[in-house]
Amino acid sequence: AVDLLTFGEALVSLRSAGPLTAGGALTMRLAGAESNVAIGLARLGHRTAWAGRVSDDELGGYVLRQLRAEGVAVDHVTRDRDRPAGLMFLERRTADLTRVRYHRAGSAGSALSVEDLRPALAAGARVLHLTGITPALSDSAREATRWAAEAASRAGALVCLDVNHRAKLWRRDDARAALAPLAGYASVVVASADELDLVGEPGAAEETTVAGLLARGVATVLVKLGADGARAYTRDGVRHAAALPVTAVDTVGAGDAFTAGYLSGHLDGLDLAGRLRRAVTLGAFAVAGDGDWEGLPRRDELSLLDDLQPGSTL
Ligand code: ATP
Question: Residue 60 in 3-state DSSP?
Answer without folding.
Answer: helix
